[in-house]
Specification:
Blueprint lengths: L1 H28 L4 E4 L4 E4 L2 E2 L4 E4 L5 E7 L2 E8 L4 E5 L4 E4 L3 E4 L7 E2 L12 E3 L2 E5 L5 E5 L1
Antiparallel strand pairs: 1-4, 1-9, 2-3, 2-13, 4-5, 5-6, 6-7, 7-10, 8-9, 11-12, 12-13
Length: 145
């Protein structure tokens, strides 16, 4: 009887180890899809603190900014290297507990601001520890990182 239990435990442990390795591999192979919440980041919307807003960052430095605007939440993608701002659809992201976001597309799908579809000029300003831009509703958004 004891020998049968030991066999089952070994099989169970083997299955668990294989599952953990598969999950780890899946996460490693999709690192470009993952964003983490920037702890301590603050968002000001139209000069007022916006506690409902969130900032997430990819490993390459690109930011996803969830801004609680007058008409509801908006999602902005900010690329500090290319110095562009775009608006993304919330359906392209999966928000997970613990401050993680999984992006369904790499590169992320978004509509560029100051384009034929969105005529608002974001007037992007990047400073050490801060990013500022105009929202779709033409309100100033300031991130302090």
């Amino acid at each position: 009887m004891l020998e049968i239990l030991n066999k089952h435990w070994r099989k169970l442990i083997t299955v668990l180890v294989v599952l953990l390795l598969m999950v780890g591999e899946a996460i490693l192979l999709t690192t470009d899809h993952w964003l983490t919440r920037v702890r301590g980041a603050t968002v000001a919307y139209n000069g007022q603190p916006s506690n409902a807003s969130r900032v997430y960052q990819r490993q390459d430095g690109k930011l996803l900014v969830q801004v609680q605007e007058d008409t509801g939440p908006s999602f902005y993608l900010v690329d500090p290297v290319r110095r562009i701002v775009g608006i993304a659809s919330p359906t392209r992201f999966v928000f997970l507990p613990g401050g993680y976001v999984y992006g369904r597309d790499v590169p992320a799908s978004y509509t560029l601001m100051k384009s034929a579809k969105i005529e608002v000029d974001p007037q992007l300003v990047i400073e050490p520890g801060a990013v500022e831009f105009n929202s779709f509703e033409k309100r100033r958004v300031r991130l302090t990182l």
